[in-house]
Amino acid sequence: MAVLTERIGFDFDGTLTRWPPLVRFLVSVLNSTTTPRFIYEPFWRTLIYIPIFPNLKRLKQIKEEHPNFEFYVITGRSNLPLVEQLLKDYGCRKYFEGIYHYERPNKLNVQQFKEKFCKGIGIDWYFDDNRYTIYYLREKGIRAIRV
User: pTM here?
Assistant: First the structure.
């Protein structure tokens, strides 16, 4: 009996990576109503970006137990070299069949971009931390799970 391939997509920021608690605290404090609005989260993502792969061991284990699973990164981050380098640095680039990133300028918004690649690749399950992306993808018939 043939084993079917299961294609699983992941967002990068906030899904595969997590911010350390200190950075998250700084962002929340600096984004309070008493702080000028020019200091906002994307600024801090660029300035202080420390990735943590809490599930790297589990990802490796899943890949070994289920060789029919294909993992993909489909991210709204436009800096592909950084994503590639971080995955290489953590020794997990080899677990991903492909990395797709949002290119600017783009006629599609980030949700439309993710929909296009999920459908184009044939993603069976997509994981993201953004609830609006999850709602959008579900409306478009993609099995999406918020982490």
Answer: 0.76
